[in-house]
Amino acid sequence: MVLGASSLKFAGHLSPFLAECVAVREGIKFAINHGLSPGVIETDAQNVVLALQEKTFNALEGPIVRDISRLLERLENASCYFTCHFCNAAAHSLAQFAFRNNVSQSWFDSIPDWLTTIVLNDLS
User: Fold this and answer.
1) CB 65: neighbour CB atoms within 10 A?
2) Domains along the chain?
3) DSSP label at residue 60
4) 19 near 124, Cβ under 8 Å?
5) Which helix (H) or strand (E) holds 4?
6) For the chain, how far is it from start to end, CA to CA, in angstroms?
């Protein structure tokens, strides 16, 4: 069951690692702001998961890794896990939606049909 989704457009150019960190951080913020309490946060960016596990806060991207870590602490018993790229098509489709349409958009309680199809494919 999908309770909500968000597609955010960011200005500028981010490194792949920083872009994945921003995606994880904004996803957690979305959950917190909507009163959701997911126990599992999934990303196909293994380096983000490793940075969180190793508490790598001294690197250039350290501040955002610290932000993610603090947000995870606000969610009781939440952990961030690596998942394969093929199991995470919904996240990539949301990023492409923001890029193609040059817009940020969120859905809560109901998601568009195109996203429902992708989520169902992710689950199979």
Assistant:
1) 23
2) 4-123 (3.30.420.10)
3) T
4) no
5) strand 4-7
6) 14
Helix (H, G, I), strand (E, B) or coil at 17: helix
Q: How far apart are CA 117 and CA 18, in angstroms?
A: 28
Residue 62 CA to residue 18 CA, distance in Å, equals: 10
Write the single-letter amino acid at 56.
Answer: T
What tens digit of pLDDT does each residue of 48-105 get?
999 999 887 777 888 999 999 999 999 888 889 998 877 788 888 988 898 899 889 9
CA quadruple 68, 98, 47, 123: dihedral sign: positive
**Residue 6: which residues within 8 A CB-CB, separation 6 or more?**
26, 27, 30, 94, 104, 105, 106, 107
